[in-house]
Amino acid sequence: xxxxxxxxxxxxxxxxxxxxxxxxxxxxxxxxxxxxxxxxxxxxxxxxxxxxxxxxxxxxxxxxxxxxxxxxxxxxxxxxxxxxxxxxxxxxxxxxxxxxxxxxxxxxxxxxxxxxxxxxxxxxxxxxxxxxxxxxxxxxxxxxxxxxxxxxxxxxxxxxxxx
Length: 163
Description:
single chain, mainly alpha, 2 domains, 11 helices
């Protein structure tokens, strides 16, 4: 009886997973990437289950990675705002020094490739007065930073999350 009940529950879950996967696809995430190009309900179910089980789809949607891009621009911008607000004092100090953990993190949030981090830190130090002229206003500081990045001859092309 227990074996039958277990099999009935497993079949129901698999059927629901297969129906969901066949209707909407696996969406995005690690499951989609691993099983991409493979056709059929079995592979779609495995992709969907992988995404759901590992929880990577949520991270992918939030960060715009793993093949996810739904509303990524808005989420990235909000992520930048939250980071600046939460780390305002330390970011200000690190920018003034032209180095530090907060500067590296901010460069990453601005989409700067690893090679451009040093240029980002240097720009932050050189243009500190223009960037932090917002008197503690997070949105103004972020807008100033984006303006300075967009005007920079190297960083304008190396940092992808400026607009």
